[in-house]
Amino acid sequence: MKIYREKDYDAMSRRAAEIIAAEILHDPACVLGLATGSTPEGAYKYLVDWYGKGLLSFKDVLSVNLDEYVGLAPDHDQSYRYFMQSNLFDHVDIVPGNTRVPDGLSKDPGTVCKEYDAYIRSLGYVSLQLLGIGRNGHIGFNEPGDHFVKETHVVDLTESTIDANARFFASREDVPRQAISMGIGAIMGAKKVLLCASGEEKAEAIFNTVCGPISPSCPGSILQLHPNVVLVADETALSKLTAAGVEV
Fold first, then answer.
1. Catalytic position from the list 6, 23, 67, 103
2. Would residue 201 show up in a list of annotated catalytic residues for this protein?
3. Which structural domain, as residue segments, surrounds residue 109?
4. Would the pTM of this model clear 0.85, i.e. be above it?
5. Which of 108, 110, 148, 213 could pair covalently with 184 via S-S, beta carbons 3.0-4.6 A apart?
6. Residue pLDDT, tens place only, 53-83
7. 61 in a domain, yes or no?
């Protein structure tokens, strides 16, 4: 695992955007696995800026997103499709039909999950998978449990995840209790994984991901088995690693 230690959130965001941009420049038809939430938002701003300056094009890029809330329409302002449109897709030249986000409104989520996995396999998996990490070590919405779930699946969100996401909704009660999440198999099938983290509240999850036992109690720990992981984090997110003497 290669680790980049950055001063703060903005520096982390720029470094992450540079890695994503390098992937696109290397292979303009690459497949990007994309994430949502506050962690990648800054990186998307840099990518939009570079596109606006003519430094980058998404016209041949394919994308697949990690997850979506069950029960939210694509135009709901807290859906992950809405997030992607607002933060990236609407501001660059990516072809709308080349973007995929799980269908959170489907009456048959089991079929949605199977078809999502089949689509990812048909692409030969993603070129670069962008990940954030939850305070409990979740990646995508793969929550802590007693086993790793390989396939795309419907997840019952933990109380800690609901609490963490409540700030985006009018009230905690409005946070969906389920989500469709890309499974560990598709994440591990990515040719490269870019894991980003910012803030002291992520320090324990990052320490457990990098140095802890490989266990579904910290889903991020599975990344220790991936041959090509880049971790980009700010100083506070890396604080427990540095305190333990890990060279970063």
1. 67
2. no
3. 2-194
4. yes
5. 148
6. 999 999 999 999 999 999 999 999 999 999 9
7. yes
